[in-house]
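chain below, 87 aa
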Amino acid sequence: MRIECPFCGSRDVSEFAYYGDAKRRPETSLSDASRQFYEAVYLRDNPAGRHEDLWYHSGGCRSWLRVIRDTRTHKLFHATFAAGEPS
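prediction:
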């Protein structure tokens, strides 16, 4: 599987770390933030179809990316954006 990094171009998925659902990010200032992050990353839904994920380009430019992909095929990445960019 390849991810199109907006800064580095097309890269192998092994350069990236998956960080869960891009739409479901807990507030870091809450007293139970650790539990909420655990639930967001490990106890997530597994939808079939189009989904927006948060990825970190750990083996490259070290940027955070939002990736829109089809969870049924894992082959088609519809779009990638820098984490702060609007989709």
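The chain has a mean pLDDT of 83. The helical segments are 33-42.
thats it, cya
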